[in-house]
Amino acid sequence: MYSAGDEIPAPSVRRFVMNGKINRKPGRAKEFGMSMLWYWTSYFIVTLIGIGHTIFNVAVLHMGSMAEGPGLGEGYEMTKPWHPLYNIILFTFFGWLFLRGLVQPTLKKALATGALWYGISIVFDLVGWVLIKHPWSLTFKQFYVEYQPWITLVYLAMLLGPVLGYLLLKKQKRTQIQMVEYT
Fold first, then answer.
1. Other CB atoms closer than 10 Å to residue 122's CB: what's the count?
2. Does residue 17 sit in helix, strand or coil?
């Protein structure tokens, strides 16, 4: 790779040099790290929006709260149909951000990212919303049976978000190419 007398790059640069050429592709670890950054950002924002929506329903619209009803109360129950919408918008946007940052985004990477996000969400939701007891926790039945069809649609949104983000990215690139051709 290097001949006598060549200056050997520093370790941080060396890992991107292969066969004397600069490898501009980030490693899988970096891609995974960025995927997790965008996943957790999206998950956190979706959760805050859902909580904010519930608080709005209780405080402003005077719907029943946790204290007044079974489960999390009317204020929460009325937000359920909106959860898939929050998720499809945000997971598509953050999937698009993630894929936009890749050197070579592909449908295969979008599908793998969606599958990863889907799997993490199922495990994290079980632990965070069912197994660990807190004021907003639900029973297994409340989360996986009574939350139907909304929880299934939420998980589908997480699975398909990066794929939709990829399709948006592809359309955006096609539009940019067409604009260049016309100028």
1. 13
2. strand
